[in-house]
Design brief:
The protein is α/β, with parallel strands linked by helices. The chain has helices spanning 32-43, 51-63, 72-92, 106-117, 122-128, 157-170, 182-199, and strands at residues 20-25, 47-48, 99-103, 135-139, 176-178. Helix 1 (32-43) packs across helix 7 (182-199).
């Protein structure tokens, strides 16, 4: 097994207080990336891409190999480094909204680790359950599945979505389900974000 020291693996989350972060989680091909992009465009701000896709696409292109246990911590390191960098940029920007939209999080990586391997690296588990987001969205399975080099579960999306919901509940992570077409999703999230901002 991999080590258990989250600090040693640089997995600590650094979020300036002024930044309102949204994590978008869910089964594959349920519109997470599209929603992130749409929200970033709507609010004229940045979004955190899914580092796992970049990492694994490169591995597939170079070696025709898929994800293994040993890839999990490097993926986690890349994801949180990207998130921390963009959170700092948002805090220093002139954009008054200070929203950061995250296409996945270490919690999602933990969920998939447990789904595929029945276990999770201790360092990843340690931080995934404590990282904070002001709004966690779970995408509904109401979009067509689109094949690519990395997707492998066209018939398990409902089951995986239910597993996400159970894990979020187990770890006391409040979340909202988000579905509908692109415009409906953006409109609903916008309403929630304005409500959250008023409460801060």
């Amino acid at each position: 097994m991999n080590g258990s020291d989250a600090t040693a693996y640089n997995l600590v989350q650094h979020t300036p207080k002024s930044v309102i972060k949204v994590a978008i989680l869910g089964a594959e091909s349920t519109g997470k990336t599209t929603l992130c992009r749409d929200l970033a465009t709507h609010f004229d701000g940045p979004w955190v891409s899914e580092y796992m896709r970049t990492y694994l696409q490169a591995k597939w292109d170079d070696e025709q190999l898929t994800c293994t246990w040993d890839d999990l911590l490097p993926i986690a390191q890349g994801q949180i480094a990207l998130e921390n960098t963009l959170a700092k940029q948002v805090a220093q920007s002139s954009n008054s909204s200070h929203y950061l939209f995250c296409d996945t999080s270490l919690f999602e990586l933990m969920v998939y680790s447990n789904w595929y391997y029945g276990d999770c690296p201790a360092a990843l588990q340690q931080v995934a359950v404590v990282h904070h987001y002001d709004l966690i969205l779970l995408t509904e399975v109401d979009t067509p599945w689109v094949a690519d080099d990395l997707r492998d579960s066209p018939h398990q999306r409902d089951e995986i979505s239910d597993y996400f919901a159970s894990q979020l509940t187990r770890h006391q992570k409040p979340f909202r389900r988000i579905g509908g077409d692109r415009e409906d999703r953006v409109r609903q999230v916008t309403e929630w974000l304005y409500w959250i901002k008023d409460k801060l």
